[in-house]
């Protein structure tokens, strides 16, 4: 029997950029947020703003995961601590929503898979929430139904410009903090996961070229907020060991629907693309039509036809299927976007937990998260060897 979502209690680790996005989305679903963990000052300020009763300062994540007032742990801390925090939460019997990437190496993310391989293991979801844009669910349904025929190829990009200048700084730039792949690991995996979800297929081989434009950057002394644009006076120069942009050729496996053969894709990924704030663009090209969608205009899908008029399908109108309706709340013409995709992802996860796993796990699982990390490793190997690498 299902329990109402507001009976489940969430604890959030990380109170920087994305932690509060989780809090807001959960609150909009009626989920109780009972605990928060981060640096003492930031955790206290977040708790104060949202009226969250339990504060675990000084990054005391063990206190949070062991709290009897927390059922689901959200990990919104930097990448290098995801695995240890996820393992601690699973050991404490807590369900987990882990930010992407699930870890920095497949060796460590394999430990999460092992921890989940036991009876009655908790649920773990990786926060590839682009799956829950209604347009992405709609494109998935259309590909599954064969609305664009057999899929021939896929093309797209994920572009941002917040790290364009050599003075733009974030922990992600350091391989020791975010992992050896930055643009691909941070945003490229969102693109790959989205395409995998739409096709119902896995990226199984890659030919990659990665490039670091700023080989040396300057950073301000002290902590810097994600997307922050500080005006520091005191700079430290450092060598950059992660990529600013990448070109990827990908081969997706034979899928369960829509196409009998492997599908080829190409994507560009950049965090130094002036003018693009957060543009995930995907074009799916089939034998009878194409689908195009862009993250910054998320309520619409463009359907292209060779032998008929093109169409623009709008969310909340008859252009979208009713089965997408479980993951959209406002009527057509009332735009939904980034915060709503988080809300819909947590709806899917919390309903899965509340119903004792009776709903389909549409969200990215630990297996998907592990695969994305293996893919990043294949990208690195390919870029270094200049050859195709199987994942
Ligand atoms: N799904 C998405 O769309 C999305 C968007 C942004 C970030 N992210 C992911 O979320 C994570 C956090 O990114 P961010 O941009 O919010 O970073 P951020 O630097 O803005 O915030 C990180 C927070 O974690 C805290 N923290 C640092 N070390 C910690 C530790 N050991 N234990 C507990 N808390 C710790 C910091 O004090 C800070 O509050 C990253 O893994 C990133 O990839 C995902």
Structure report:
The chain folds into 2 domains: 118 residues, 3-Layer(aba) Sandwich (Rossmann fold), CATH 3.40.50; 255 residues, Dihydrodipicolinate Reductase, domain 2 (2-Layer Sandwich). The protein is built from 10 helices and 18 strands. The strands form 3 sheets. A 9-stranded mixed sheet has the order 16-15-14-13-7-12-11-8-18. A 7-stranded mixed sheet has the order 3-2-1-4-5-6-17, with helices on both faces. The model has no long low-confidence stretch (mean pLDDT 94). The protein binds nicotinamide-adenine-dinucleotide. Nicotinamide-adenine-dinucleotide binds next to loops.
Give the topology, please:
Layout: E1 9-13, H1 19-29, E2 32-37, H2 40-50, E3 54-56, H3 61-65, E4 72-75, H4 82-91, E5 95-98, H5 106-116, E6 124-126, H6 134-145, E7 151-159, H7 175-178, H8 183-199, E8 203-211, E9 216-220, E10 235-239, E11 245-252, E12 263-270, E13 279-286, E14 290-294, E15 300-304, E16 311-314, H9 338-354, E17 364-365, H10 366-385, E18 389-390
Parallel strand pairs: 1-2, 1-4, 2-3, 4-5, 5-6, 7-12
Antiparallel strand pairs: 6-17, 7-13, 8-11, 8-18, 9-10, 11-12, 13-14, 14-15, 15-16
The chain binds nicotinamide-adenine-dinucleotide.
Nicotinamide-adenine-dinucleotide is lined by residues 13-19, 37-39, 42, 59, 61, 76-79, 81, 99-100, 127, 129, 171, 186, 225-226.
């Amino acid at each position: 029997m299902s329990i109402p979502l507001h009976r489940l209690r969430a604890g959030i680790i990380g109170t920087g950029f994305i932690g509060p996005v989780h809090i807001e989305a959960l609150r909009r679903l009626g989920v109780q947020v009972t605990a928060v963990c981060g640096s003492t000052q930031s955790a206290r300020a977040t708790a104060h703003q949202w009226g969250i009763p339990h504060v675990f300062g000084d990054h005391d994540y063990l206190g949070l995961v062991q709290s009897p007032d927390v059922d689901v742990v959200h990990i919104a801390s930097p990448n290098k601590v995801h695995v240890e925090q996820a393992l601690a939460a699973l050991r404490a019997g807590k369900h987990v929503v882990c930010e992407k990437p699930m870890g920095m190496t497949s060796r460590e993310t394999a430990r999460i898979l092992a921890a989940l391989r036991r009876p009655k293991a908790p649920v773990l979801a990786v926060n590839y929430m682009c799956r829950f844009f209604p347009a992405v669910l709609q494109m998935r349904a259309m590909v599954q139904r064969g609305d664009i025929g057999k899929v021939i190829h896929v093309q797209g990009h994920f572009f941002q410009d917040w790290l364009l200048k050599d003075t733009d700084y974030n922990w992600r730039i350091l391989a020791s903090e975010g992992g050896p792949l930055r643009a691909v690991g941070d945003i490229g995996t969102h693109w790959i996961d989205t395409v995998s979800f739409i096709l119902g297929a896995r990226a199984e081989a890659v030919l990659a070229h990665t490039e670091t434009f700023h080989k040396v950057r300057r950073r301000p002394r002290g902590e810097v907020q994600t997307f922050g644009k500080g005006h520091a006076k005191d700079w430290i120069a450092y060598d950059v060991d992660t990529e600013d942009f990448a070109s990827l050729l990908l081969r997706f496996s034979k899928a369960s629907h829509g196409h009998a053969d492997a599908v080829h894709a190409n994507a560009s990924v950049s965090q130094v693309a002036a003018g693009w704030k957060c543009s995930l663009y995907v074009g799916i090209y089939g034998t009878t039509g194409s689908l195009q969608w862009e993250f910054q205009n998320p309520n619409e899908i463009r359907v292209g036809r060779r032998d008929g008029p093109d169409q623009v399908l709008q969310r909340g109108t008859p252009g979208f299927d009713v089965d997408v309706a479980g993951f959209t709340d406002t009527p057509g013409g009332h735009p939904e976007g980034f915060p709503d995709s988080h809300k819909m992802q947590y709806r899917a996860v919390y309903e899965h937990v509340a119903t004792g796993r009776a709903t389909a796990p549409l969200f990215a699982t630990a297996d998907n998260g592990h695969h994305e990390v293996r893919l990043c490793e294949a990208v690195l190997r390919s870029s270094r060897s200049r050859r195709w690498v199987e994942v």
